[in-house]
Amino acid sequence: SAVERAEAFRTVAGNGAPVLHGVWSEAWGHEAIDRIWKEGGERPDGIFCGNDQIARGVADALRERGARVPGDVSVIGFDNWEIMAAQTRPPLTTIDTNLKELGREAGLMVLALAEGRAIEPGLRRLPCKLVIRDSCGGGRQQN
Asked: Which of these, 136, 132, 140, 137, lies nearest to 47 by C-alpha position?
């Protein structure tokens, strides 16, 4: 799924925006910001993260460097892990992947396999939605 997310981002961004890869953790969010800041080039005004843990680390690392989220850099996560998103400062805008439905679908597939029923192979996609919170400025009025 990480490769699919990165490819989707590259397709949509279409402007050669860099994609960094690392461990899916808060620590990687800190490390990614370290790398971006050390490069010394133009700093991003927005960062889209592969999951909410990375996004929380990114938001913390930005704040530690004096960058305002979302004033200087907007941050968006992925998964809508509500406890993580709500505790990020500021609260994290994220993509809700509908994990409950994903788990339900996976469970139904396991049951079907256990019962000997044929399952059509291939990738399955479920709809997602954007949950807007303060980390991209959506939680307050913009001027």
From this structure: 136
Q: Does residue 106 lie in a domain region? A: no
Q: What would the pLDDT profile of 63-75 be if each residue is shown by its tens digit? A: 999 999 999 999 9
Q: What is the C-alpha separation between 40 and 134, in angstroms, rounded? A: 27
Summarize the confidence of residues 37-65 as an average pLDDT.
93
The CATH number linked to 49 is: 3.40.50.2300
pTM of the complete model: 0.82
Residue 54, domain extent: 2-98+127-136
Label the pairing between strands 46-48 and 129-131.
unpaired
